[in-house]
Amino acid sequence: MLIKCLLDNFSSYLCELKGRHRLRCEYLEIREYFTSAADCWQEQDDELLEQIEKGTGEGW
After folding, report:
1. Taking the mean position of all CA atoms in its chain, how far away is CA 56?
2. CA separation for the pair 25, 23 (Å, rounded)
3. Which element (helix H / strand E) includes 58?
4. Angle at 56 between CA 51 and CA 60, to 5 degrees
5. Is the full-model pTM beyond 0.70?
6. Where in the chain are the domains?
7. Half-sphere exposure (Cβ direction) of 23: Cα atoms closer than 13 Å
8. Would you state the pLDDT for residue 3?
9. Across 23-41, average pLDDT
10. CA torsion sign, 31 to 32 to 36 to 39?
């Protein structure tokens, strides 16, 4: 009976670790997506600002 209880607890512990690992992996994927999206938006903002500055110099 004690061995079964220990095995059940150990099994629960392993499932919890697996869940944490999966959650961490999903978090890292989401973070990577938002980081790359933010970099893309920053590049577009920089290009737009550059175009505005060029346009302002040309008499805008």
Report:
1. 38
2. 5
3. none
4. 115
5. no
6. 1-56
7. 6
8. 80
9. 84
10. positive
